[in-house]
Amino acid sequence: MLNENIKKLRKSKGLSQEELAIKLNVVRQTVSKWENGLSVPDSSMLIALADELDVSVGVLLGETVTDPMPDDLKTISEKLEVINLQLAKRSMVRLKAIRGILISVCALIVITFIILAAMQSSYLGWDYNNPELAVAGTIVHGFEFVFVRLAPIVLLISVVGIVMTYKKR
């Protein structure tokens, strides 16, 4: 019974005799002898074998081990399907969030351009002898200078990002 249990448990774990032998620091022929009933592992090896196969020593020695039922495989495949659906849903939510952020960036850039165009650089006519207006005018002019140069690049990158999020996978 020990030999049959070792063989069934090893196969259910998807291990070859060689792989199990490596994990137990023995040669493949030793595992083969155990499975063919030509020898038995000593007590310390029996404990190590049970640990590798994730069972108790009692299961190895006496209790019969049944092959996995087809229903078990069906249950596992159903669970994997649920997990895959959850991952796909999470991915879609993340994609929609990124798309929303990119659309918001585009809208913000366009609105800022409209505001700057409506101002028509009116700050250039301010009285710069007044220190407060001089500081405010310099800040607005610096913002406009940097914005007009960087915003088109950011807008282009955002539009490309939006298009990429709508592409079919």
Automatic annotation (TrEMBL):
Family matches, as PROSITE patterns: HTH_CROC1
SMART domains per the UniProt record, alphabetical: HTH_XRE
Domain of life per record: Bacteria
UniProt keyword terms in alphabetical order: DNA-binding, Membrane, Transmembrane, Transmembrane helix
Listed GO MF terms: DNA binding
First and last residue of the signal peptide: none
InterPro entries reported in the protein's UniProt record: Cro/C1-type_HTH, Lambda_DNA-bd_dom_sf
Pfam families referenced in this protein's UniProt entry, alphabetically: HTH_3
Segments traversing the membrane: 100-126, 146-166
Domain called HTH cro/C1-type: residue spans: 6-60
Coiled-coil region(s): none
Name of protein: Putative transcriptional regulator
Annotated organism of origin: Eubacterium uniforme
